[in-house]
Design brief:
One of its GO terms (molecular function) is 4-alpha-glucanotransferase activity. By secondary structure, the chain is an alpha/beta fold. The protein contains 18 helices and twelve strands.
């Protein structure tokens, strides 16, 4: 099995503490790993690490292969003499507990550009050899990504489907001219990817040296406005103008009368099958270069996915379409071996075919303790007594309210009525025990003592925070992905408490 009585914490790198407005891959990331190790944790789960687009969502990335430049540590660039210390003064003083993207992005991008220029044009040639090797090794995705970003910036960040026709349709002569004209901007983007991967490699090595495995995240669908769709439009269901003819989402359910219209273009699975899903194999391999275990978001889409006509305003008028199923994972097994380092996000409308696909390849699924007490028709599967060893159990995810926020909600912070909130509270206390005064820790202790092979807690639950610390509210287009931990939050006393609970539970 993939997990053997382990415990870990979910915290995206943007939520790490630090002085430059957003968490990054510098010294604070190493301090974080030291705290995890001291607290007896063996797993660190992160969200997708790619560059974000509209809404700052890591699930709507500009690339499936690139890293997010906003995660690059400015302090490490100063240490490498790519920035002068005084250059960092352009970063405004910002609150410690929140990422204000609108105030962080512009000054940080300016500093990153300055560092890239110095690296490319001022450092000794001998130092560039590793960079050249990186560019050659990663050219299969890096060349298109850097060109995509360079053109996008000159097109005022418009989606690629709104670019002039010669760029939109990838006219070879037009792209050759763009490569020549935008050479400096393209090289700067490549340098930033080099910085990211260099810094992330240091973080991952430090994690593994401390006995910590990193769980990454790979959304099944990718953003329409991304380098991946622009560079390989033949793999997606698009019209002649590059617009999706059908899009991804989920149907109406207990939580949404109109379903969820995600807008991601859908794959041409029949075409992908002809070369043994080569694009997917590259994607999985690249993700496994970054992390030890991959959480596949919306796993059920491999069995069947909800297909919505591209011009529909909601997800109501869609239909279920068969996914690639077993044939896809047979190919993945051929490439990566029988024991796949994959975690299936098997939440939502889960049917027998989804369960058969998950269990047929021995993939651990997810159990969310918050879901055990509400109206979810599958809520019995989220009770601790129903856990199996080959699963990973959570107090909540990045899409949930915090445990404290959920427990103390009176109906104003969710779609539930006050009566439903009270019913769930009482059902929760019957299972968890206690009086609710330390509900987040009650959840942690319950999960630690369950039979689940692994348990994960969002850092907000470890800290006992309320709804103000929620990471994401699905359906809310703004104000998400902002929460940050401060340096003083993870106290020595809290670390000792967590370590003791881990030991007492035999994890």
């Amino acid at each position: 099995m993939l997990f053997s009585r382990e415990s870990g914490i979910l915290l995206h790198p943007t939520s790490l503490p630090g002085k430059h407005g957003i968490g990054d891959l510098g010294p604070e990331a190493i301090k974080w790993l030291d705290c995890l190790a001291e607290a007896g944790q063996k797993l660190w789960q992160v969200l997708p690490l790619g560059p974000t687009g509209y809404g700052d969502s890591p699930y709507q990335g500009l690339s499936s292969f690139a890293g997010n430049p906003l995660l690059i540590s400015l302090d490490l660039l100063v240490k490498d003499e790519l920035l002068d210390p005084e250059a960092l003064e352009i970063i405004p003083r910002l609150p410690q507990g929140e990422v204000l993207y609108e105030k962080v992005i512009q000054p940080k991008q300016a500093l990153l550009q300055k560092a890239a220029q110095r690296f490319l044009y001022e450092v000794p040639v001998t130092r560039l050899k590793d960079y050249v090797s990186f560019c050659e090794k990663e050219s299969w995705w890096l060349d298109d990504f850097a060109l995509y970003v360079a053109i996008k910036e000159r097109q005022k960040l418009r989606p690629w489907s709104d670019w002039p026709e010669e760029y939109r349709d990838r006219d070879p002569e037009a792209l050759d001219n763009a490569r020549e004209r935008l050479f400096d901007a393209i090289e700067e983007q490549k340098a930033l990817q080099y910085f990211f991967y260099e810094q992330w490699a240091t973080v991952r090595t430090a994690a593994n040296e401390r006995g910590i495995r990193i769980i990454g995240d790979m959304p099944i669908f990718i953003a329409h406005d991304s380098a991946g769709v622009w560079s390989h439009p033949e793999l997606f269901k698009l019209d002649d103008q590059g617009q999706p003819t059908v899009i991804a989402g989920v149907p109406p359910d207990y939580f949404s009368k109109t379903g969820q219209r995600w807008g991601n273009p859908l794959y041409r699975w029949d075409l992908m099958a002809k070369d043994g899903y080569a694009w997917w194999k590259k994607r999985v391999a690249k993700t496994l270069e970054q992390v030890d275990i991959v959480r596949v978001d919306h796993f059920r889409g491999f069995a069947a996915y909800w297909e919505i006509p591209g011009d529909e305003p909601t997800a109501i008028h869609g239909k279920w379409v068969d996914g690639p199923g077993k044939a896809f994972f047979d190919e993945i097994v051929k490439e990566f071996g029988k024991t796949l380092p994959i975690l299936a996000e098997d939440l939502g409308n889960i049917t027998e075919d989804v369960i058969a696909l998950r269990d047929g390849f021995g993939l651990p699924g997810m159990r969310i303790l918050q879901f055990a007490f509400g109206t979810d028709p599958m809520k019995h599967t989220f009770l601790p007594e129903a856990f199996v060893e080959n699963c990973i159990a959570y107090s909540g995810t990045h899409d949930n309210d915090t445990v404290c926020g959920w427990f103390h909600d009176d109906g104003s912070a969710s779609s539930r009525t006050s009566e439903e909130c009270e019913t769930e509270r009482q059902a929760c206390l019957e299972v968890i025990g206690g009086d609710g005064n330390d509900i987040a820790w009650d959840f942690i202790e319950t999960l630690l003592n369950s039979k689940a092979g692994a348990v994960i807690f969002p850092m907000q639950d470890v800290l006992g925070l309320g709804s103000e610390a929620r990471m994401n509210t699905p359906g809310n287009p703004s104000g998400n992905w902002r929460w940050r931990m401060t340096e003083a939050d993870f106290t020595p006393e809290m670390i000792k408490r967590l370590a003791k609970s881990i030991k007492d539970a035999g994890r």
